[in-house]
Amino acid sequence: MESVYAVLQEFAASDYAKAICEYCNVSPSQWGQARDMFAEVRLVGGPGGPASTVVIVLSRAFEQRSEKLLERLKRHFRQRMPGQVQRLQYETKSPPSTKTYIV
Q: How far is residue 75's CA from residue 79's CA, in Å, rounded to a whole number?
């Protein structure tokens, strides 16, 4: 989990994430913090193996830009953790839905 968190923190500190924060009217004091961008992060393992799916719930402020943000995050995982993370699963609470991205 620590390496996944490090990748998420690195993503949250990127120039792209800062631009998304500005677009979504997120307070500058919250920019660059994974805990402020992602409301929930879970790892789900493959059958009998290590975790291969990262399940993400975005903080409410970022839901309006979820498509672009998750596409960029998918590419970031592909670059930083090649072969380790196979899927990125995005869950929303209202309305309840799940979308899976193949990394």
A: 6
* CA–CA distance, 55 with 30 (Å, rounded to integer): 22
Nearest-angstrom CA–CA distance, 72 and 56: 14
Is residue 96 classed as helix, strand or coil in its secondary structure?
strand
Cα–Cα distance between 86 and 56 in angstroms, integer? 14
| In contact, 88 and 56? CB cutoff 8 Å | yes
Q: In what order do the strands lie in the sheet with 96-102?
A: 38-45, 51-58, 87-93, 96-102
Between strands 38-45 and 96-102, the pairing is unpaired
pLDDT mean values, one per 10 residues, the chain (103 residues): 86 94 86 90 78 92 92 95 91 91 93
Domain positions in the chain = 2-102
